Amino acid sequence: MALSRADMDRKIDEHFGFEASDNVEGVLTTLALDVEHDIVGSPTGPTQGRDSARGFYEHLFADLADGKVETLRRLYGEDFLVDESLWRGRAVGRPFGVDGRDRPLEFRLLHVMEFASNGDIKRENVWLDLAAILQQLPQD
């Protein structure tokens, strides 16, 4: 049976909530055990499974702080959604390989999420506006 929009919204909002509180374990519980985790441009490339996704979140939470996500729009299909969001916070480490120096940062994100029949996220594909990041965090 297909998930409802409300079911998908609940899961992605739970996922984003754990991200906002830098809760690695919480984020991982929203993912299927065999999740395909694909952050486009990540040096690791797509990874498979919760344990493989863990390192990405540990680094992300060390590199970004005070993050808030504002959902701009969502598009829905059968067992998937596309979420366009705006992230705002501070770059305290080296997010996406760029020296942040504790500067403010704002960039758009596009998530393509596919869901398993039990509601877990079975595929997370993320595209981010790297040009905006580089413009706000110029490197000397």
Summarize the structure.
It contains four helices and six strands.
- Number of H- or I-type helical stretches: 4
Query: What summary fits the major beta sheet?
Result: 6 strands, mixed
**How big a fraction of the residues is strand?**
35-45%
Q: What distance lies between the first and last C-alpha atoms, to the nearest angstrom?
A: 53 Å
C-alpha geometry: globular
Unreliable stretches (pLDDT < 50, length at least 5) are none
Series of H and E elements: HHEEHEEEEH
Helical residue percent band = 25-40%
Provide the gyration radius in Å.
15 Å
Total number of beta strands: 6
**Structural class of the helix and strand makeup?**
alpha+beta
Mean pLDDT, all residues: 96
Major β-sheet strand ordering: 2-1-6-5-4-3
